[in-house]
Specification:
It is a single chain. It contains four helices and seven strands; from the N terminus they run αββααβββββα. It has 169 residues and is α+β, with helices and mostly antiparallel strands. Strands 1, 2, 3, 4, 5, 6 and 7 form a seven-stranded antiparallel beta sheet that branches. Strand 4 (81-91) and strand 5 (95-104) form a beta hairpin. The longest helix is centred in the N-terminal third of the chain and has 18 residues, at 31-48. The radius of gyration is 18 Å and the shape is globular. It starts with a helix and ends in a 24-residue tail after the last helix.
């Protein structure tokens, strides 16, 4: 991981355009493609951490998403370009808990967030396994660079229907 990537806290991915086929009948980005944009952002982070496509091909290890929660906050239209951020909230020898934001590239408004739990996988199993020492060192360097960032609003937020208390007679 280069020093610039370590200083970027949270990690900011290169801008992405919105493809015309991703726009739904409501005229904005279909919900499924928000996750695709976040996944492409994660791929940039994975390469920085040493876990990209080459890692999978050569070392026969990869990552799987064990859990993901997307919050849709503002419509993204077809002419938009967006960036995603990536902040490590926690990690251990086999897992990475992270929070991403999707923002309009030039205007900066927040379109969506995605909280994930990523599992490190031995492709021979496939089974969850520890990160190799070199990858874990890069994860720890990024986590240390981000350690003083505030916990993102919405991280760990439960999902459900909030009910108003019923008035007692």
């Amino acid at each position: 991981m280069d020093q610039q990537s370590i200083r970027n806290a949270p990690f900011v991915t290169p801008p992405q355009g919105i493809e015309p086929g991703w726009i739904d009948f409501n005229g904005h980005l279909n919900m499924a493609y928000y996750l695709l944009v976040f996944d492409r952002g994660y791929e940039a982070v994975a390469r920085t951490l040493g876990m990209g496509a080459t890692y999978a091909a050569e070392r026969r290890m990869t990552t799987y998403t064990g859990d993901a929660r997307v919050s849709y906050l503002r419509e993204v239209h077809g002419d938009a370009r967006v960036v995603t951020t990536f902040q490590i909230l926690d990690h251990d020898e086999k897992r990475l808990h992270a929070f991403q934001e999707m923002r309009h590239e030039t205007e900066g408004w927040l379109a969506a967030t995605c909280e994930t739990l990523t599992l490190h996988i031995d492709m021979a199993g496939p089974k969850v396994c520890p990160f190799p020492d070199d990858v874990l060192a890069r994860i720890e360097a990024m986590a240390a660079a981000q350690a003083d960032l505030p916990r993102p609003e919405g991280a760990g937020r439960p999902i459900g229907i909030r009910r108003k208390p019923q008035a007692r007679p």
